[in-house]
Design a protein that fits this description.
Elements lengths: L1 H26 L2 H37 L22 H12 L1
Length: 101
């Protein structure tokens, strides 16, 4: 009985060791390394997207709490002409001012 127990334990350990060696050998092949790097790249890409989404959400929340304009929008002062900064309106306003002087 004692010999059967040790034989079974040794066979189990051998199967476990062979499985581990095969997995390690597969990882170290060019295809295995390419798969690992592709997985790492995908994970980094997903992490970056999650961080950017979180940053945008937090910025939107903070801008809403502080009553600031959304990112990319130009703040308007009370009484300011909304088209004053647009291309072409500067030249038009100069000619209008020059014509009235």
């Amino acid at each position: 009985m004692n010999r059967v127990l040790w034989f079974a334990a040794g066979a189990g350990a051998g199967v476990y060791a062979i499985t581990k060696v095969r997995r390690a050998a597969e990882i170290l092949t060019p295809d295995g390394l390419a798969d690992r790097l592709a997985g790492l790249s995908l994970g980094a890409h997903l992490f970056t997207e999650e961080v950017r989404a979180g940053m945008a959400e937090k910025e939107k929340d903070l801008r809403g709490r502080l009553a600031l304009p959304l990112h990319g929008a130009t703040p308007q002062l009370p009484g300011a002409d909304p088209g004053a900064g647009a291309a072409g309106t500067d030249a038009e306003s100069r000619t209008t001012r020059e014509g009235t002087d």
